[in-house]
């Protein structure tokens, strides 16, 4: 039976064009049967589908969602006032079982708030969390939280570690994933009161493979499978990583110009740098899972292009097939 994914056509800076192209590409490149429910205003989306030449044979259906949640809208206003939005109706379809998952590259706060309102939390989870990917010399580490929860108690960090451990094991296939606590030093007793208390709680958790504190200088060298921090720190870390490629490319271009490298040599260097930079590029990672809600929700970068949307749809299909929601329920004793 084909998986069905609800897609927010209006989510992101490049919507709806990039979302439409990404959805079409995902359907064409899918290895297993896949269907897409595309939510957005018919008067804006249907002409673009017609222009793209979408045939009736393609398993893509447009569902009218006349309200549009802008990136600048407050989450509270989005939940209360725009009930006919693509986020509301898409999550509603997932809740009713008409779709197996929901994805959006739109307003993260609105997706988070509407997911909580529509799907609810898994029993025992106090704070759902978004888990992101951070590139290292040996693949990538999962960083959790990356901005959902800027003020956290120590027990919240433990829950983040537990949810990320389940995700990393069942979706990414890493057995007994290691967990590091982001801190200002490796030694026990380092950090603020929140982090010191979390260190003790993580060490006591039998279902978490806690390796201890991790310093910022160790992150790029693959300090652990999972890096735990509050959303304030995690969001700064993620955005710093995303900015690195732009800065490195500019610095490299300036230095090549200063050294008067021949154009052919500059092309070689630029090509190598472009390949190295892909790990920091959201287009190659797709989306980030919202863990802890009672459903499959994937959130994309606001700047997502068609390639990122395509990757996010495939990653969401893997999320559904892994049955991670039920695995999380087992982990939290539901």
From TrEMBL:
Subcellular location: Cytoplasm
UniProt record, GO biological process: fatty acid biosynthetic process; phospholipid biosynthetic process
Keywords (A to Z) from UniProt: Acyltransferase, Cytoplasm, Lipid biosynthesis, Lipid metabolism, Phospholipid biosynthesis, Phospholipid metabolism, Transferase
Reaction equation(s) it catalyzes: a fatty acyl-[ACP] + phosphate = an acyl phosphate + holo-[ACP]
GO cellular component: cytoplasm
Pfam families found in the cross-reference section: FA_synthesis (PF02504)
Predominant localisation class: cytoplasm
GO molecular function annotation: phosphate:acyl-[acyl carrier protein] acyltransferase activity
Enzyme class: transferase
EC number(s) reported in the record: 2.3.1.274
Biological or metabolic pathway of the protein: Lipid metabolism; phospholipid metabolism
Function text: Catalyzes the reversible formation of acyl-phosphate (acyl-PO(4)) from acyl-[acyl-carrier-protein] (acyl-ACP). This enzyme utilizes acyl-ACP as fatty acyl donor, but not acyl-CoA.
Quaternary organization: Homodimer. Probably interacts with PlsY.
Family designation: Belongs to the PlsX family.
NCBIfam families found in the cross-reference section: plsX
Protein name: Phosphate acyltransferase
Classification lineage: Bacteria, Pseudomonadati, Rhodothermota, Rhodothermia, Rhodothermales
